[in-house]
Amino acid sequence: MTAASPAPRGWFITFEGAEGAGKSTQIDMLARSLRARGHVVQTSREPGGTAAGIKIRTLLLDPQARLVPRSELLLYAADRAQHVDEIVRPALASGCVLLCDRHADSLVAYQAYGRGIDLQLVEDLNRIATAGLVPDLTLLLDLEPEVGLARAAQRSTADRLEREDLAFHRRVREGFLAIARARPERVHLVPAAAGVEAVHRQVLAVVEKRLDISS
Ligand code: T5A
Fold it and tell me: Which atom of ligand 1 is nearest to 193's Cα?
């Protein structure tokens, strides 16, 4: 009797970075490139990657919502727990490449560095929300907050987080850079000020090299 072949394990790739850094744009482009190479690709986002998450996202981004930082923290974590169980784990179990627009690093950058909530507490909450799942690779699109906010403002009216002052967004960027320094094996920093095609070439090169999925 032959042993059963191991279950397929997909790739979990997250995109992180400031407002307007180009995450959605780059996820669309990478998904197209990978599909053209024959890979099965799924895309998702946090917050809002599930039906329950869409309701949580609406509340979180509503400029009229008066959320204290701990409520905000717990709502992002609740969205993540739902998303991991409902979308991420099944996608990985099916063997596909899952590209996710924001994940646990955003909680560290925004709620710990941005809001000033205790870093250890935020990391512990992430472990609860993810049940220990960690991305295989994270692309950190790094951009001056002023540039990203200007890009986001051109596209739509500012949401609750985008209305925070520049000092908040600078702390968020510092948070992302600190994560990249602390986790070099997982987080790859991609300068995001160049044009979309130039950024895409860098993103694709990183994904091909780190995950060996160029064929
Ligand atoms: N949050 C999230 C937390 O506080 N904690 C958490 O745990 C999580 C998960 C989510 C908010 O929630 C916060 C972070 C956020 O504030 P969101 O709408 O999902 O809200 O916010 P973003 O992820 O920031 O989405 P954006 O759409 O604003 O930014 P993207 O996806 O980075 O940028 P994109 O691709 O939509 O591009 C924005 C504009 O710039 C142009 C695009 O055409 C578009 O118009 N653009 C470029 N222009 C010039 N050069 C380039 N290279 C460009 N790339 C894109």
Answer: 52
